[in-house]
Design a protein that fits this description.
Helices cover 62% and strands 12% of the residues. By secondary structure, it is mostly helical. It starts with 5 loop residues before the first helix and ends in a 5-residue tail after the last strand. The relative contact order is 0.06.
Length: 381
């Protein structure tokens, strides 16, 4: 019979206990690790479009986090966002809004009412309301987003510019171009107070104002300001110059000064080509709509509604080197025929910035245009 030294026995028992703990942890990690495993599985299942399984995993992981850290733990914000995306993909928009509001409450409770981490939550909430058809609530959320930035940074701080730009983009897509213009004017005011008189960063804002003025059919003081800044073009990057020149061409083309417009396009291509010939070729490779306004559907005409469905239309058309459309043909639409004639008429009256090949305006055959529109559920289509 072999007798072991007590120290050796104790050391053996200690090592055995350590090995047992390691094995136990590998088989059953702490609850937080279990929660993260649920979330990782949920993310993978979301990518695989296994939404029901992903939702279950998010809910199980969230329950574990609440048990471990409490219902107001900041660790819940990210999985709540993931769960909200599942709800949106499932068409459960109200549930998505509810969970996002809870995430925002947790964010504010932990990091303060003015913390900027909640911006992503507001973006998702706005998107959910849009998908619900509630454009008024979506707009309110977008305005809240801007208000948060102003309260955090101050009205005249350049850090507010991206937030105003986001709201302007929302208004533009919603065809509220007067309000979009107000936001770009506010951006320009911030730039004028913080940047030099002829700072190139103003050109992008002024270009947006000119674009909106074209759509509104109104005179544009922004166009004159672009011309003033371009007098100092030797101090401005070629990219900023080229984009501004192209917008000036759009203005002239929209108001019938075709030859002047083509001169601007040639100059823009040449200027951008001095930096990168491939970039110039890519930027001017496809035509761009200048003054086309999609025809309003009955939903647009009657104002904000939630009882509507999204339809769509796909059109093929030719565009000349002068930006004139021809051979307009509806390839497909749903509901079929619902808005076809209105879109054909609007496209026939619009002008395009033509594509440029090696710096010269060129014809484009069989260009494609796709668009979505809203129609009422009860119209019988």
């Amino acid at each position: 019979m072999r007798i072991f030294h007590p120290i050796f026995v104790l050391l053996t028992l200690f090592l055995a206990s350590k090995l047992s703990a390691q094995v136990e942890n590998a088989i059953a990690p702490p609850e937080v690790n279990d929660a993260q495993r649920f979330f990782e599985n949920a993310r993978i299942q979301t990518e695989l479009n296994e939404l029901s399984e992903a939702q279950d995993n998010y809910l199980d992981g969230i329950d574990l986090l609440i048990q471990e850290n409490g219902e107001y733990s900041p660790s819940l914000v990210e999985p709540y966002m993931g769960l909200s995306q599942i709800y949106i993909l499932n068409g459960q928009h109200l549930e998505a809004v509810t969970i996002l509001e809870e995430a925002q409450h947790i964010s504010q409770r932990n990091f303060g009412l003015l913390n900027m981490d909640q911006i992503a939550l507001l973006d998702e909430m706005s998107n959910a309301y849009l998908l619900m058809g509630d454009t008024i609530k979506a707009e309110t959320i977008q305005q809240e987003r801007l208000t948060l930035a102003i309260r955090r940074y101050g009205e005249e701080d350049p850090q507010v510019i991206p937030f105003r730009h986001k709201l302007a983009h929302y208004y533009d897509l919603s065809r509220m171009r007067g309000r979009a213009r107000e936001q770009f004017e506010a951006i320009l005011e911030i730039q004028q107070k913080n940047f030099d008189q002829y700072d190139e960063r103003k050109l992008s804002t002024l270009s947006e104002l000119v674009r909106i003025d074209i759509l509104l059919g109104t005179p544009s003081s922004a166009r004159r300001q672009i011309l003033e800044i371009l007098e100092y073009r030797n101090e401005i990057s070629p990219t900023h110059i080229a984009i501004a020149l192209a917008v000036l061409g759009d203005w002239d083309l929209a108001f019938g000064r075709t030859e002047k417009a083509l001169e601007y396009y040639r100059d823009a291509y040449k200027t951008l080509g001095e930096t990168s010939s491939s970039l110039a070729a890519e930027y001017f490779s496809t035509p761009k709509l200048i003054n086309f306004v999609p025809p309003p559907s009955p939903v647009d005409i009657q104002g904000n509604h939630t009882n509507y469905i999204w339809g769509w239309i796909s059109v093929r058309l030719d565009i000349s080197s002068y930006g004139i459309t021809s051979n307009i043909e509806v390839l497909e639409s749903s509901p079929s025929g619902y808005m076809d004639s209105l879109y054909v008429k609007s496209l026939s009256e619009a002008v395009y910035r033509p594509s440029l090949t090696k710096g010269e305006p060129s014809d484009t055959k069989a260009a494609l245009y796709d668009h979505q529109f809203r129609y009422f559920n009860d119209e019988g289509w």
